[in-house]
Amino acid sequence: MHARRHAIAAITALGLTLASLAMSRAQALTAKQSDALAAYDHALGDFKSILAERRSQIEARQPLPNLPGQALYLARVAVISTYKDLTDAMPSRIGKPNKFEIPPAYFDADIEPLVDEYARLFEIMEAPPAGAQNSATPFKDVADLAAAIARAKGLAPVHAAAAGRISLGLFFAETNGKQNVRNARSNTYMGSLQTGPSEDRNGRRKWEAIKGAIAAADPELNARDDKEEAKARGTDHRFNHWTGVRDGLMNAHAELFAEIPAIVKTLPDPIDQMKLFELIQIVPTPTRSALKSGDLLNYRVSSPTIMKHLRNNSIFAFGQADRARNSASFREILGAMWLFKRKFERAMAKYAEISAR
Q1: For residues 270 and 267, what is the distance between their CA atoms, to the nearest angstrom?
Q2: The pTM is what?
């Protein structure tokens, strides 16, 4: 009995000591640190909640809201943003590297499973429509089309190959390498290169203008094009992988293929080349101006609209310090595109695999 009383007293004393330590630790936080911790905990709770809600709706086959991915996306942005604010306030919270290659100051590796679930939900919500016309060789199609367009525009074989590699990077950046997908965050942009209806029409017009040159240089590819065009007739061309990629490339990127020799010289890293062409997709006008300036990396953008477009595409989007930026050079923009890096690495690996065949 005596021993039991001592044990209870010891446990009680230990509990009081732990509570006291927790209290002193909380008191040791500054107001800024405490606010940052509370904001992150709140954002993480919201992220878990919306993930669970979407999973429940999908499994119960309930109708999803319009743009069902938008709330998920914003919740993920909030988690990364508030974690960066937390590590700015408390550098000791910067942890180990993570499999997504997100800088550890922006992401706690312990929540990797939540982002895996996020990706699984998007895959379900963005599944291709029933009538989508898939290709058995989606990656090769992208590389072949880009290289053929580049050759038709007079590029040497080495630079045509770079066009193929870069375009495969665009495919991974836009859809993670999934063909004919819808878009859970937009009712406008769809398909393998995520184009809108007007962009697709524009790309088709431009393709018709060079089709003769394509046919003369590569009869086999031209025959494939005729076959896919016939198959897609009367449907949304964005949901035939071949025509969707073809028109997407022709719409925005093909006219800059002629710049590839200069781009490769300025940006020898293939991943930086992919980043630049992705910026043609995100902020086309300033990217073209930067290329024409003769000083690409130091060209600076300061338009609030352009900065907003960058943030909407995960560039300078996370944390108060990044979001407070009102201008950036292209060197800084390329450096801030770390969320694209893993996708481009996958594109590089796939391109190497295709080339080896």
Answers
A1: 7
A2: 0.88
Q: What pLDDT digit, counting tens, does each position of 113-138 carry?
A: 999 999 999 999 999 999 999 999 99
3-state secondary structure the chain: CHHHHHHHHHHHHHHHHHHHHHHHHHHHCCHHHHHHHHHHHHHHHHHHHHHHHHHHHHHCCCCCCCCHHHHHHHHHHHHHHHHHHHHHHCHHHCCCCCCCCCCCCCCCHHHHHHHHHHHHHHHHHCCCCCCCECCCCHHHHHHHHHHHHHHHCCCCHHHHHHHHHHHHHHHHHHHCCCCCCCCCCCCCCECCCCECHHHHHHHHHHHHHHHHHHHHHCHHHHHHHHHHHHHHCCCCHHHEHHHHHHHHHHHHHHHHHHHHHHHHHHCCCHHHHHHHHHHHHHCHHHHHHHHHCCCHHHCEECCHHHHHHHHCCCCCCCCHHHHCCCCEEHHHHHHCCHHHHHHHHHHHHHHHHHHHC
